[in-house]
User: Fold this.
Amino acid sequence: MTILIIGGGVAGLAVGWRLAQTGTAVTILERGRVGQAASWAAAGILFPAVERTAFGQLTAVAHTLWPDFVEELEEITALNLDYRRDGDIFITFDEDEAQLRARYEKYEALGWLPQWLTGQMVRQWEPAISRDVVAGLFTPMTHQVDNRLVVQALAQAFVRAGGVLQEETAVTAILLTQDSVQGVRLATGDELGADTIILAAGAWSGQLAGLPPECLPPVHPIKGQMLALQMQQPLISRMIRRHEGSLVPRRDGRLLVGVTLEEVGFETAITAQAVLQLLQSAERTLPGILKLPLVETWSGFRPGTPDGHPILGQTAVANLLLATGQYMDGILLAPIIAQTLTQLVQTGQTPAIIAPFAIERFYGKE
Assistant:
């Protein structure tokens, strides 16, 4: 069996790695550099959805897979992925305290063992936090990982398992014959054959020619801008979240500040307005932060869908599988997507946990 995966982000890399480990011949085709799009632009926050739904279950199971997923990648690659399980503090100012109370009740009902912190307690835990913060919610369920190191590790693990990476290789069309996949056409005009194709091209997944409408994933780009400051010494020991975004400390001393949500198509520009917004919000939380060196700004495109949930599994075209539309949960969902898509390829049966996320929910069954 020959498998082509279109897209070398975290989903494509993770699925490719797991399939290659089974001895399957797998090639990943990436339009740019592997892991350099949404997977690179993320913050690496690992937090299950706060809902008792199929999506909540999917994210909860994914969350439980991360410790072993990281351990295996680190053992194979000798990379330290900066995986942390020290929780986060969701802070609030006067105007949001009622919302924080509601959040606390949801977490408690889910058994996540939240801890309510007064403003004074928040500053005992994190002394640099503003005195304007009136309360906080500590949640041990919130984990984080350095997403950029994860994609590097996945790429290495994939190749070591026998997978083939083809970067700077844009796919323009999927070739079909009698309602089954035949291969792909590249931007160069060349064609590659395949027994199975997995479309994992993120926000670009809906742009390929050759597919019938009911198999074309309805994804669209949702732009996010972030920036990084360089701390001389750690200002915070764990992630700080708030309604306006997150502050994520990294082992190398960077402090990630994010993130915007923008419906502007594939516009990549870093805007002064976004940088100002992010810095003002961060400074309100950590006074004096504006004196830190600004070392990086970047943007990325999350693959959004009409209902905000991923598109996973089989399509009406035989042997055409989808792993796209993860929106803000691409890093979190990587282990469960890799596990379930591998099972689907091997058995031909859709695992129950991803069945609700088939593309047919948008187009209906024929």
The chain has nine helices and 19 strands. Residues 54-77 form the longest helix (24 residues).
